[in-house]
């Protein structure tokens, strides 16, 4: 096993994960003050709110992600690896190269030493142990998943168009099942429905009428984070466009071409998309830290995002000690007693807090240095916005007396988010140009 250490006199900041949290930190930390190493199996960071739009061809896939390596920050050190475990006493991360197509590399292990560590490995999709989901469903986490949605959809349309395909079989092939009625599932439904109603009816006039979209959720409502008036509105609008909205639906298993619903039985599908929430990544099981064991397992931190040690049940210590120079961010972590949702909004605000405090720590001298990390992290809640298709959206109210709003202005607020989420100015300009071109000439779907 080899050990990699910082080669400069600057403190070595190691970040685990290149998602919203880790990437924001790596992009904004002062590289003249810190020697920064980002460890992740992915060399890009996905703009997850843009994935559904990219999947249906509203803009090119490359606009929905950002490469970790960039010419403007070539001092940032990137290691394409998975962290297997962390030794908080020796201050090292045990890593293995992450190359799915070259598994023999996974036998190699190496250590990376840190002075400061930020743990941001995110979460993975939760299948709730439903048999067949891992094998047959598509999860939407990265651009490669969005590409798979687009390819699968077009393959199904071509299979359904074959002269040898019966109308009955075409209907089965063109049944798109979306599992999970939260914002991700609903936005996928909305974008796919728009695509079917607009572009596909022109490209596939003979078979477009066979496309059906079902949205399944075990809960009694879709968009259950919104108040009753808004989730009822979303349900009625989707139903009016012939989307099969099926709450109170328990999917028991999935096989190659059908899902099995409790009390209903076999329902054939052509493509199944799974968006039912998060579970912890394997690293969370290995680290010697305090974990929230209820529901989603998350690393617990104090209000300065410092990671708590695992409580020692053999002694009378309170378990409130934190590990030296270890912080955590994003979906994988939560502040003890102040639980926040697993969203990009929360991940970025926490990453911004660390950037400000790490940069203050580096630039301050003497007593000024002690002002870094003096104030706790505070979260500023943004409004919850979801697209429900057909240029319509829902926006949650700001408090009990604010009913929120719906309609075209809600859609515009959601759509403008595509520009706010994307942090690259060049990509923003290309997105605006693509929207204008789509409006005049239709989307680029036919070319994909
Ligand atoms: C389709 C979709 C749409 C969404 N839309 C919105 C939205 O509109 N608004 C919003 O606020 N939120 C949205 N979210 C949620 C948001 O994407 C997450 O909250 C956010 O990605 C969390 O950021 P993160 O950095 O904690 O984790 P992630 O972005 O998941 O990144 C984690 C990173 O860590 C890496 N990693 C994992 N394990 C290891 C390991 N052992 N070693 C090294 N690296 C590791 C992963 O490969 C990944 O690069 C959406 C999510 C999805 C999937």
UniProtKB/TrEMBL annotation:
What InterPro entries does the database record attribute to this sequence? FAD/NAD-bd_sf, FAD/NAD-binding_dom, NDH-2
Q: Name one GO molecular function term.
A: NADH dehydrogenase activity
UniProt KW keywords: FAD, Flavoprotein, NAD, Oxidoreductase
- Which Pfam family would be a valid example here? Pyr_redox_2
Domain of life, source organism: Eukaryota
Q: Which GO terms describe its cellular component?
A: mitochondrion
Can you give the residue ranges of the FAD/NAD(P)-binding domain? Answer: 12-351
Oxidoreductase among the record's keywords?
yes
Note the PANTHER family from the entry.
Answer: NADH DEHYDROGENASE (PTHR43706), NADH DEHYDROGENASE (EUROFUNG) (PTHR43706:SF17)
Q: Which family does it belong to?
A: Belongs to the NADH dehydrogenase family.
Q: What is this protein called?
A: FAD/NAD(P)-binding domain-containing protein
């Amino acid at each position: 096993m080899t050990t990699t250490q910082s080669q400069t006199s600057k403190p070595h900041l190691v970040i685990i994960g290149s998602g919203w949290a880790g990437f924001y930190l790596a992009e904004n930390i002062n590289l003249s003050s810190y020697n920064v190493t980002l460890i992740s199996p992915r060399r890009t960071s996905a703009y997850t709110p843009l994935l559904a739009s990219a999947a249906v061809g509203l803009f090119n896939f490359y606009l929905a992600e950002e490469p970790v390596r960039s010419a403007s920050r070539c001092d940032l050190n990137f290691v394409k690896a998975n962290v297997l475990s962390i030794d908080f006493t020796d201050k090292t991360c045990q890593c293995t190269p992450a190359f799915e197509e070259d598994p023999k590399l996974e036998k190699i292990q190496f250590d990376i030493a840190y002075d400061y560590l930020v743990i941001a490995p995110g979460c993975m999709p939760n299948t709730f142990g439903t048999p067949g989901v891992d094998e047959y469903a598509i999860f939407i986490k990265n651009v490669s998943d969005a590409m798979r949605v687009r390819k699968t959809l077009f393959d199904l349309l071509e299979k359904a168009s074959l002269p040898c395909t019966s109308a009955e079989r075409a209907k089965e092939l063109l049944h798109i099942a979306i599992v999970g009625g939260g914002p991700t599932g609903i936005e996928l439904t909305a974008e796919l429905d728009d695509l079917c109603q607009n572009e596909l009816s022109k490209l596939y006039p003979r078979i477009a009428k066979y496309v059906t979209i079902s949205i399944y959720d075990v809960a009694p409502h879709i968009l259950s984070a919104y108040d009753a008036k808004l989730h009822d509105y979303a349900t009625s609008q989707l139903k009016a466009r012939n989307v099969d909205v099926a709450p109170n639906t328990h999917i028991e298993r999935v096989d190659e071409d059908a899902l099995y619903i409790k009390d209903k039985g076999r329902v054939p599908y052509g493509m199944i998309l799974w968006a039912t929430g998060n579970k912890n990544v394997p690293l969370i099981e290995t680290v010697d830290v305090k974990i929230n064991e209820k529901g989603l397992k998350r690393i617990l931190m104090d209000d300065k995002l410092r990671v708590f040690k695992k409580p020692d049940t053999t002694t009378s210590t309170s378990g409130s000690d934190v590990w030296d120079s270890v912080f955590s961010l994003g979906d994988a972590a939560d502040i003890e007693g102040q639980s926040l949702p697993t969203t990009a909004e929360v991940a970025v605000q926490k990453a911004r807090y660390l950037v400000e405090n790490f940069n203050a720590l580096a630039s301050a001298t003497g007593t000024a240095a002690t002002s870094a990390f003096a104030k706790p992290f505070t979260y500023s809640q943004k409004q919850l916005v979801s697209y429900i298709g057909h240029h319509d959206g829902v926006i949650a109210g700001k408090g009990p007396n604010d009913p929120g709003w719906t309609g075209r202005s809600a859609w515009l607020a959601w759509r403008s988010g595509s520009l706010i989420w994307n942090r690259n100015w060049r990509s923003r300009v290309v997105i605006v140009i693509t929207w204008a071109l789509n409006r005049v000439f239709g989307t680029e779907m036919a070319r994909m």
